[in-house]
């Protein structure tokens, strides 16, 4: 790779931000900066008041905040591509370009030979599947959907390395034409010093059961099943539900209508996204964390690696999660309570099981934490990414470091 230098990591995501994508981006660019140096991170600045000036992020990484203006997603994506192209003008070719979506990846894939020696396509989700959940009107635009699939196919075909956090997603990429030898599964991780372990709270007479759901407040994540489970549970025991996550105006209206009397009774609490340390503390104030993923193409065909599941397992708060392949690859039945997907009744029954069996929660808590410590730390994910760059792309570390032994702790 003598003909080029440096790594460009481009992402059509807001950074920094209290979202799983931003946590993931930081972990990966820190790993690449420490191992290889010369990393340029290009991502959306987090709001119009955030700095637009390039600045060092960590050693070996420079962050270049970019804008994406427009009334809808397509306009914003085209705006981001324009800003990305302007940044790149008159710059040398990169050794590696690492992209997280087709919105920044497709223009690079089309001009791969002129821009870089190697293309890394990190697939956490594909817009041909995911956009209809975020932007329902998109699914009705058949021409746009065909373009999205075509651009995904180009990125998949031209990538020298495809990185994904889920075994299910890896299988889907192979079905879409990717060579299995070019696909690396690197699960999401947890910062153990942030999500510290604490045993579950003990039962106290008169204290309501407190449940936690964090993430996107949409049906494809199953938040509606959580709300209905709360209704069933409150028919027998006092319970409250804390919902943490971003809400657009329309989503807030729909969610509040669904909650209805539960909000008036103080049984549901809505919270904005919060920093990881605050979220970790909130875990310890709750009796169970709910991960109610329903059966749909996003969860069962494309796949995902729910960061909220891993963070909850690390915190020690008992987890109730849907019994889906994307969950079973991360947790065994003796580490989390696996319940039938799409069943509010099954969620409510699992909560009652925790209350009826005081030994169950602590046993789940200890085994879940041990599993995360063994398999799902960001240190492990960072090392896996660097090894993939070495083995698949021929990159050389600039110094010793990021060894499994040194990073494991």
Automatic annotation (TrEMBL):
Which keywords describe this protein according to UniProt?
A: Transferase
Biological classification of the source: Bacteria, Pseudomonadati, Myxococcota, Myxococcia, Myxococcales
Q: What is this protein called?
A: Glycosyltransferase family 4 protein
Q: Which residues form the Glycosyl transferase family domain?
A: 204-369
* GO-annotated biological processes: lipopolysaccharide biosynthetic process
Record-annotated Glycosyltransferase subfamily 4-like N-terminal domain positions: 19-193
Q: Organism's domain of life?
A: Bacteria
GO terms, molecular function = glycosyltransferase activity
Membrane keyword on record: no
